[in-house]
Amino acid sequence: MAKTNTEAKTNRHEFTLKVEGENWTKQVSHAFEKVRKNVTVDGFRKGKVPKEIFDKKFGSQDYLVEAANHMISEEFTKIMKENNYDIVVEPQIEMKTLTEEVLECTMTLIENPEVTIKKYTGLNIKREKVQVTEEEIDHELAHLLEHFSEVVPKDEGAVEQGDIAIIDFEGFKDGVAFEGGKGLNHSLEIGSHSFIPGFEEQLIGMKKDEEREIEVTFPEDYYEENLKGAKATFKVKVHEIKARKVRELDKEFFDDLALEGVDSEESLRKEIKSTIETQKERSAENKYIDDLIDAVSKQAEVDIPEEMVANVTENMLAQMKDRLAMQGLNFDMYMKFSGRTLEEIKSEMEKEAFSRVLARLTLEKIQQLENITVTEEELEEKIKTMMEEHHVTEEEILSQVRGGREALKYDLEINKVIDFLKDANK
After folding, report:
1. Cβ distance 293 to 362 under 8 Å?
2. Of the candidates 288, 372, 295, 303, which has an alpha carbon nearest to the alpha carbon of residue 120?
3. In whole angstroms, what is the distance from residue 206 CA to residue 188 CA?
4. How far apart are CA 15 and CA 30, in angstroms?
5. CB-CB contact of 424 with 121 (8 Å)
6. 10, 214, 227, 255: which sits with the fewest CB atoms below 10 Å from its CB?
7. Phi, psi dihedrals of residue 412, rounded to the nearest 5°
8. Do the beta carbons of residue 173 and residue 126 sit within 8 Å?
9. Comparing 7-16, 90-99, 130-139, which segment has the lowest mean pLDDT?
10. Closest CA to 73 of 49, 91, 54
11. Of 323, 418, 414, 308, nearest to 86 (Cα)?
């Protein structure tokens, strides 16, 4: 039924599947019975419409595809059983002919490629040392005081840098108001750079109830096509001015801060230093691991199938869309704002996708060479730790992990490989 067009040493295997005669007509008939079960046509009981009526009203595509999917799935199972391929992407199906007389298609299976690593020990990769400066502590302390600052009405004086102005505004291009250019009682922090360049700066010096016309030029890369690089005039009125009152390092501030053991500037600076140190240690560790994997990957020789990279790229794109959706953003709108096409975004992702595939293949090869494994006891301990940390059951953990226990075990194996590389490349 199927024949292979593959050579034994390649990781790409192509099969031709051709089904005809009684074997195919029986399968088509079975598929038709399955499809018409849920079909209702006037004048016939549900699921009892004659084939000639069904074909005239709906065509034959649905049940032919159903029959083809069944035969392809059956053949795939047979091929995998006979060859035990380690495929890395979904089988690729190219349909040649699909009629009531014959099914003919090609099936391409792609296995993990062979990896050769010239060297993966003694690479002398170093972890950068972490230190926290007084300037960094000062900066974080100032940021903390600003975060806890109070916003108070500014009854006297004019708008200054850092103030919050409550304004009405309306934009005009060539004397005509444009869509989306109007706002009422809008709260704008001067220096936030949330408006068109040059807009906020021209509010400085304005007083409460003052009106002013502001001239600006839209950026060349502005998302609205008709406003790119255009000159515009905004009529602005200031309703209210608010200023930030920076807190003092007094008892009231430390009470609001509510950090255990922190009741003075000295203890606060120690806490800030510890926090910065922890963040830097984490970043240094992540960079060290990235540098280590990058160095080892450069020692690998492998012919990576483009389908593997495409598969990871699509996953990255789907994750990006999910993140945008969580922020209430539409992907099409994101492309409009960023000024990039889908092809440009995917092209950028492909480089990262290639690096990810190369790193994975390299680490898996080292795992194989060093015979690094994870026991059931280690897996159970990992699950137990996750249960305690997140206060959930094992079932809840596994339901949230794509691939379940095997995926968790794989992550533990890769972490063991990384630990091995740390020791072997100091």
Report:
1. yes
2. 295
3. 13
4. 25
5. yes
6. 255
7. -65, -40
8. no
9. 7-16
10. 91
11. 308
Phi/psi at 300 (nearest 5 deg)?
Answer: -90, 145
pTM of the model: 0.70
Beta strands at 231-245 and 150-153: parallel, antiparallel or unpaired: antiparallel
- CB of 252 closer than 8 Å to CB of 236: no
Q: Is 424 helix (H, G, I), strand (E, B) or coil?
A: helix
d(CA 192, CA 166): 14
pLDDT at 149 over 90: no
* 384 CB neighbour count, 10 Å cutoff: 12
Order of strands, edge to edge, in the sheet holding 102-110?
Answer: 2-4, 12-20, 102-110, 92-98
Instruction: Tell which phi-psi region holds residue 295, choosing left (phi > 0), alpha (psi between -120 and 50) or beta.
Output: alpha
User: How many C-alpha atoms does 330 have within 13 Å on its Cβ side?
Assistant: 3
Tens-digit pLDDT profile for residues 8-41: 346 889 999 999 999 999 999 999 999 988 888 8
Task: Tell me how far apart the alpha carbons of residues 25 and 64 are, in angstroms, rounded to a whole number.
Answer: 10
* CA distance linking residue 327 with residue 279, whole number of Å: 25
Residues listed for the chain:
426
pLDDT digits (tens, 9 = 90+) for 117-126: 999 999 989 9
Contact (CB, 8 A) for 356 and 312: yes
Instruction: Name residues whose C-beta falls within 8 Å of residue 201's C-beta, 6 or more positions apart in sequence.
Output: 190
Closest CA to 113 of 305, 353, 350, 296: 305
Q: State the CB neighbour count (10 A cutoff) for residue 144.
A: 17
Q: What is the pLDDT of residues 268-299, one digit of tens each?
A: 999 999 999 999 999 999 999 999 999 999 99
- Where is average pLDDT lowest: 213-222, 266-275, 334-343? 334-343
CB 97 within 8 A of CB 62: no
Closest to 306 (Cα-Cα) out of 5, 16, 11: 11
Q: Which two tokens stand for residue 125?
A: 């990769």
Radius of gyration of the chain (CA): 32
Single-letter residue type at 21: G
> Most distant CA pair in the chain: distance in Å?
94
